[in-house]
Amino acid sequence: xxxxxxxxxxxxxxxxxxxxxxxxxxxxxxxxxxxxxxxxxxxxxxxxxxxxxxxxxxxxxxxxxxxxxxxxxxxxxxxxxxxxxxxxxxxxxxxxxxxxxxxxxxxxxxxxxxxxxxxxxxxxxxxxxxxxxxxxxxxxxxxxxxxxxxxxxxxxxxxxxxxxxxxxxxxxxxxxxxxxxxxxxxxxxxxxxxxxxxxxxxxxxxxxxxxxxxxxxx
Length: 218
Fold this sequence. Notes:
Helix content is 32%, strand content 24%. The protein has helices at 19-27, 45-55, 106-116, 136-144, 154-163, 190-199, 203-212, and strands spanning 12-16, 37-40, 69-78, 88-96, 99-102, 122-129, 149-151, 169-177. By secondary structure, the chain is α/β, with parallel strands linked by helices.
């Protein structure tokens, strides 16, 4: 490398839990200026922890990802009254019973999402993790604690990522159901279809976030 030349940018790892989420993200690659490894972790915090830890461990087929920036994404349940399917949640932190993880570049990420997904409401605030589907009174209690949305993998994903080494991390989720719009099954009702379409559009914003951050080198 020539003196004064910037080191190569660290890669980007985009983690999601479900096959339908990965399908949406892969559909959004076309025409997007950037690259990322899209990792399907499986459902739940333990699956997310195992998959992300393995991917960032520096061995095997994911050896190049050891220093990767990480974004957790996919669908979530909105907690605040007035949320609608297709709204976006940009976490300023993720939290669960194991603790909190601060997210990087939150304002920039929200700005880029507003650019690439116009006419969609973007919420910024805490994203809480759960090991089960949250409904009814439990959803209200989580909202009362200050959280905007809940999902099963983001908190575990980001915690595992920073445990593996210093790196920028973020979480962006698309609301698939909300207090007034609860779904029975993702992908079968209007709200699920709306969330799927929004998730297909987010990669350009992720790439812009990634380009803007200087990842500390080891």
